Amino acid sequence: MGPHFPVLNLTLALTALCVVTVLPAGQDGGVSPNKKPYVRTGNEVTLSGTIKLTGKRPKPSRIDMAADLVCYQVNPDPKTEDVVGSKGKLANVFVYVKSKALDSYTFELPGSAAMLKHKGCRYVPHVLGMRVGQPLTILNSDPTYHNTHPTPKRNLEWNWSQSPGSPPLKRTFDQPDFIPFKDNLHPWEEAYVGVFAHPFFAISDESGNYRIAGLPPGRYTVIVRHETLGEKTVDITLVSGEARDLSFSFDTGDH
After folding, report:
1. pTM, whole model, 2 decimals?
2. Which residues lie below 8 Å from residue 128, measured CB to CB, with a gap of 6+?
3. Whole-angstrom distance, CA of residue 49 vs CA of residue 41
4. What's the mean pLDDT when you consider all of the chain?
5. To 5 degrees, how large is the angle CA 171–CA 147–CA 190?
6. What are the pLDDT digits (tens) for 157-189?
7. In this model, does residue 214 exceed pLDDT 80?
8. Rounded-to-integer distance, Cα 175 and Cα 178, Å
9. Nearest 10 degrees: CA dihedral of 123, 133, 16, 62?
10. Which of 233-252 are b and which e, b meaning 16 or more Cβ less than 10 Å from the residue's Cβ?
11. What is the pLDDT, as a whole number, of residue 32?
12. What distance in Å separates the CA atoms of residue 122 and residue 117, rounded to the nearest whole number?
């Protein structure tokens, strides 16, 4: 669709997208009746560190938004954001833990919904972490149509469009997953959403820092995952009351 795409045809195309049926959410929610709520003991531990980047950092590329001239008005200098962070550091890395012990508990959900916005014809944030069963609110903040289309592996796929000023979409996911989000109307719009069964995850910030607090002591596999640079793991044992510094490094030359 070029910049002079007729308004009538555009409206028809958008209408067709809007009538895609939203599939119902799954039923089991990943919760077993044998699980019990976790009760804090006061002996919980903290895991923190820095995600570093070695090798040549790829330069952001300019995004061609010619398919929708409104996008140029709200975002005149759009750039890719696959590998971001301050010098020598890497942002947008998931850090989370796995253990059989955690699988035997349930954990209280956050009191608020996770939020994903179409803003400046981009997904904001680009990387988002949330919980199984936690509501996800998708907001269209732009004066143009947007489409939200997650492509999960373990949850049901759905596809829905929003007109400017329309009410937010609200959805949940029933299984842990890493889910790419796309916008069928604006193919440059991408987001990456991690859905976790417990609260012990973090996303590294612009300085590469992360922090996971309130973790029960025990043996864990710690996983760090970046959308394009891959995944690293390490097995650790955390003792009562410990504050462990655990840092990781990704090299762009490995990909």
Report:
1. 0.85
2. 114, 116, 191, 192, 193, 194, 203
3. 24
4. 88
5. 90
6. 999 999 999 999 999 999 999 999 999 999 999
7. yes
8. 10
9. 10
10. eeeeebeeeeebebebebee
11. 56
12. 8
Residue 231 sits at the vertex; the CA angle it makes with 234 and 176, to the nearest 5 degrees, is 95
The amino acid that residue 87 corresponds to is K
- In this structure, the dihedral spanned by the alpha carbons of residues 246, 252, 254 and 255, taken in order and rounded to 10 degrees, is 120
pLDDT tens-digit map of 2-33: 333 333 333 334 433 433 333 333 333 444 56
- Report the C-alpha gap between 83 and 181 in whole angstroms: 17
Cβ neighbours, 10 Å, residue 35: 14
- Cβ(31)–Cβ(230) below 8 Å: no
The type of residue at 50 is: T
- The size of the chain, in residues, is 255
Whole-number pLDDT of residue 33? 63
* pLDDT attached to residue 82: 86
Residues 6+ away with beta carbon under 8 Å from 188: 63, 64, 65, 78, 121
Residue type for 11, please? T
Task: Please give the structure tokens belonging to residue 236.
Answer: 């650790």
Residue 163, CA distances (Å) to 18, 133, 144, 205 in order:
9, 26, 7, 32
Confidence band (pLDDT; 50, 70, 90) for 149?
A: very high
Work out the average pLDDT over 131-153: 98
Per-residue tokens: 237: 């044992």
Token reading at 14:
């958008």
| Tokens 């008005």 belong to residue | 73
Task: Identify the structural domains of the chain with CATH numbers, from first to last.
Answer: 1-30+108-197 (2.60.40.420), 44-63+80-101+199-255 (2.60.40.4130)
Confidence check: pLDDT of 130 > 80: yes
